[in-house]
């Protein structure tokens, strides 16, 4: 097996991250390193020789450097996709510092800490592509989504600054901002709200809610050479949700 | 801080391909640019609690001149 590309994915055991891993492993020249907590959810992926599961809890941000040293010491990545994300509905009155910290730890701080390591020459190739999964909620607002919206917004600022810092090595950094995609995260959200509210949310997407692969094909494009002039951008993919 | 350790730290953080000595002119390194200057300012701030100014960065040449800017008494 001659590996030409190593891609690191967070949130690889569910939703868009898992769908992305499933697509990328089909190319035997690509080795996919998937970070996640629960390998039970990706039994189908574990059979691939070019898929390596890194069981790791992104809440432990301070252990990320050790993860690189112990498990990724001699790997140079050409791509990184941050799919891990925490979503919750909580009004401002209940948003204590601890709760905000939790959401930001997974959604933002873990990505920054991974990139702090990954951006070193020993872990990444020139012309690599880093992609951060934000959300249409990074630019829009919704009641009860303070932590989610604020953290997804933070990723947009992170991506822009990072794109400039890494431009010298022609490493590209972009955000992908999906609308509602049919993932376990969304199903959990839908279970918490009334049917009427659910229909209203679905109805706000002019061409319907998305499937994971709708987003995955965009990420595939951003990872590849065909997008080599694209950096520092936030690409919304939301079935028309945000143009209304 | 031990001077050898400082050299290693600077070399690591600037991701230099070449060796680094106290006599090395930082400005003549292939890797020297505005980002490298930023890395150096951050590194010195973290390690020595010394905030280098833009003028300081303009005036330094060799690693020795950087050490003098930080304060030779901070090195062994």
Automatic annotation (TrEMBL), chain A:
GO terms for molecular function: oxidoreductase activity, acting on the CH-OH group of donors, NAD or NADP as acceptor; quinone binding. Belongs to the short-chain dehydrogenases/reductases (SDR) family. This is NAD(P)-dependent dehydrogenase (Short-subunit alcohol dehydrogenase family). Pfam families: adh_short_C2. One of its GO terms (biological process) is fatty acid biosynthetic process. Keywords: Oxidoreductase. PANTHER family: 3-OXOACYL-[ACYL-CARRIER-PROTEIN] REDUCTASE, SHORT-CHAIN DEHYDROGENASES/REDUCTASES FAMILY MEMBER. SUPFAM superfamilies: NAD(P)-binding Rossmann-fold domains. PROSITE patterns: ADH_SHORT (PS00061).
UniProtKB/TrEMBL annotation, chain B:
InterPro entries: ACP-like_sf, PP-bd_ACP. PROSITE patterns: CARRIER. Residues 1-74 form the Carrier domain. This is Phosphopantetheine binding protein. It comes from Sphingobacterium siyangense.
């Amino acid at each position: 097996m001659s590996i030409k590309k190593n891609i690191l994915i967070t949130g690889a055991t569910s939703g868009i991250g898992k769908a992305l891993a499933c697509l990328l492993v089909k190319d035997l020249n690509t080795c996919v390193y998937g970070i996640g907590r629960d390998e039970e959810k990706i039994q189908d992926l574990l059979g691939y020789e070019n898929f390596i599961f890194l069981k790791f809890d992104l809440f432990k941000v301070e252990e990320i450097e050790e993860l690189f040293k112990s498990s990724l010491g001699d790997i140079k990545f050409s791509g990184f996709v941050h799919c891990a994300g925490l979503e919750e509905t909580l009004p401002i009155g209940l948003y204590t510092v601890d709760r905000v910290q939790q959401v930001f730890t997974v959604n933002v701080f873990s990505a920054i800490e991974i990139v702090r390591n990954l951006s070193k020459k020993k872990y990444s190739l020139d012309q690599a592509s880093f992609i951060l999964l934000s959300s249409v909620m990074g630019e829009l607002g919704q009641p009860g989504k303070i932590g989610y919206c604020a953290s997804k917004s933070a990723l947009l600022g992170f991506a822009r600054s990072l794109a400039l810092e890494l431009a010298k090595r022609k490493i590209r950094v972009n955000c992908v901002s999906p609308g509602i995609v049919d993932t376990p995260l969304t199903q959990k959200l839908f279970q918490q709200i009334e049917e009427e509210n659910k229909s209203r949310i679905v109805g706000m997407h002019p061409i319907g809610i998305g499937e994971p692969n709708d987003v995955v094909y965009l990420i595939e494009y951003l990872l590849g050479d065909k997008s080599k002039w694209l950096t520092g951008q936030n690409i919304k993919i939301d079935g028309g949700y945000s143009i209304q | 801080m031990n001077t050898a350790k400082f050299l290693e730290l600077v070399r690591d953080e600037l991701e230099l391909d070449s060796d680094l000595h106290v006599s090395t002119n930082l400005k003549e390194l292939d890797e020297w640019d505005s980002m490298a200057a930023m890395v150096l300012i951050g590194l010195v701030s973290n390690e020595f609690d010394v905030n280098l100014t833009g003028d300081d960065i303009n005036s330094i040449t060799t690693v020795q001149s950087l050490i003098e800017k930080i304060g030779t008494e901070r090195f062994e």
